[in-house]
Write a structure and sequence with these properties.
about 250 residues; mainly beta; Immunoglobulin-like; 2 domains; six-stranded mixed beta sheet; 2 helices; about 35% strand
C-alpha cells in the first residue's frame, strides 16, 4: 500500500513539473541593455602624441627680414669712428651690421626699429653697402648706404687726384660756397663731369673741364648742400673714375 502511494506521488510531481515553467531554462535568454552610447577604448583614450612623429621635427619659422634701412649720417671719415643711427624694422638682439665687408663695432639694438653702431675704418674710402642681418632670419642691404670721404680743412680746397688706378680720394666733403681742385696724374686725358651721363644735369658746376696728363682744373662753386656724383664723360661706365662731392 505504501509502495502505491509513493508511485502516485512521483507521478503527480512529474505532471506538475511538466505543466509549470522550468526554473532552469535549457537555452540562454537574451537580455536587453538600454543604449547609453558606445564605448571604445582607443577613441575615448587616444594614445599620447609621439614626439618623433613627424621625424625630423619641422624647422621653426624664420625671423622676418628687417625693413627698409636709413643710415644717419650717411658719410664720415676714412678712419672710421662715426656713430650712426640705422632706422628700419624687425631688429632683434644679436642683429649684426656690416659696412662693406667689415663689421661695425658697438652695435646696439635700441628697439625693433633703431640701431646705433660705430663705423669701422675703410681701406680705400668711397661708398660701401650697409648690410643689417637678423639672426636666423633675413638680411637687408642698403646699396652705397655709407660714404667714406675726406673733409677739407677750413680755408683749404679739397682735391681729387686722378691716378692710373682711379680717383683718389673717392669722395670729399666741402662746405657750401666752395669748389674742388682736380689734378690729372694719369697718363691719359680725363673729362670729369656730373651725373647722369650724358646730360650731366644733376650738378653742372661739378665739371672741371678736359684735363690732359699733368693738368689741373677746378670745378665751379657749389652753393647748395647735397651730394654730387661725378664720372669721366669719355669713360662713363668705369667705376675707377667715379667720385662723390658732398656739400654741406
Amino acid at each position: 500500500m505504501r509502495y502505491l502511494a509513493a508511485l502516485a506521488g512521483v507521478a503527480l510531481f512529474a505532471v506538475a513539473a511538466g505543466c509549470g515553467p522550468s526554473a532552469y531554462p535549457s537555452s540562454p535568454t537574451a537580455v536587453s541593455i538600454p543604449a547609453a552610447g558606445t564605448f571604445d577604448y582607443y577613441d575615448d583614450y587616444p594614445p599620447p602624441p609621439d614626439p618623433y612623429d613627424p621625424y625630423p621635427p619641422p624647422e621653426p619659422p624664420a625671423m622676418p627680414a628687417p625693413g627698409t634701412l636709413v643710415v644717419t649720417p650717411d658719410h664720415g671719415p676714412i678712419a672710421g669712428g662715426t656713430v650712426v643711427t640705422i632706422s628700419g624694422s624687425g631688429f632683434v638682439p644679436e642683429t649684426t651690421v656690416m659696412f662693406g665687408a667689415v663689421p661695425a663695432t658697438a652695435v646696439t639694438v635700441l628697439d625693433a626699429a633703431t640701431i646705433t653702431a660705430v663705423t669701422p675704418a675703410s681701406f680705400d674710402g668711397g661708398w660701401v653697402d650697409v648690410v643689417v642681418a637678423v639672426p636666423e632670419g633675413g638680411a637687408l642691404t642698403l646699396p652705397g648706404g655709407f660714404t667714406y670721404a675726406d673733409e677739407a680743412a677750413p680755408g683749404q680746397t679739397a682735391t681729387i687726384t686722378i691716378t692710373p688706378a682711379g680717383n683718389m680720394p673717392k669722395a670729399v666733403v666741402i662746405a657750401a660756397g666752395s669748389r674742388v681742385r682736380v689734378v690729372n696724374n694719369d697718363a691719359r686725358p680725363h673729362d670729369l663731369a656730373s651725373d647722369p651721363h650724358p646730360s650731366h644735369t644733376d650738378c653742372p658746376e661739378a665739371a672741371a673741364g678736359f684735363l690732359l696728363p699733368g693738368a689741373t682744373g677746378h670745378t665751379g662753386v657749389f652753393m647748395t648742400p647735397r651730394t654730387c656724383g661725378i664720372h669721366d664723360h669719355n669713360d662713363p661706365g668705369t667705376a675707377a673714375w667715379m667720385s662723390k662731392i658732398i656739400i654741406r
